[in-house]
Design brief:
Length: about 150
């Protein structure tokens, strides 16, 4: 299944994915994004899922070397696709665990996705600092619908 790669608006990389996503095609898309980062300094990414049917079974999907090297240079990632894939795509992209704002838009909402990509500022983020009975401080962080609780279980 090929991934079509396009480039527009100065630093917008567009990947159109159809059918089943293969590991080799995924790695090729990562190389395209990395080349754009090296050329431009930073990028925004729009991924459009067209008749998407999931991921091929293959070894190596857990490789995090691309985000470790490149996340500081990716401003935002917008994914457009069928709502049935939203939760799996969020898990695949590690939404909430990476410093990159990632949002999912329903099929037909590509213009909303582009608008969000070009808007100023990162995705919404909220913090709550607290102190428990034993004086241990912690924080609750919520970003883009994913929460992380850093408190002691007192």
């Amino acid at each position: 299944m090929p991934i079509k790669y396009e480039f527009e608006y100065g630093n917008l990389c567009i990947f159109k994915v159809s059918g089943q996503l293969g590991k080799v095609e995924y790695q090729d898309a990562q190389r395209d994004a990395e080349a754009a980062i090296q050329k431009l300094g930073s990028i925004k990414v729009l991924i459009v899922l067209e008749n998407f049917s999931g991921w091929e079974r293959a070894e190596g999907w857990e490789d995090l070397s691309f985000p470790e090297r490149n996340d500081p240079y990716i401003e935002k990632i917008a994914i457009v696709g069928d709502p049935q894939w939203q939760d799996l795509v969020y898990a695949f992209t590690l939404k909430g665990l990476r410093p990159v704002p990632i949002e999912y838009f329903k099929t037909g909402e590509e213009s909303r996705a582009r608008q969000w990509l070009h808007s100023q500022g990162p995705a919404s983020c909220s913090y709550r600092i607290f102190q428990n009975r034993r004086g241990i401080q912690g924080a609750t962080v919520a970003r883009g619908g994913i929460g992380l609780n850093l408190e002691d279980d007192d």
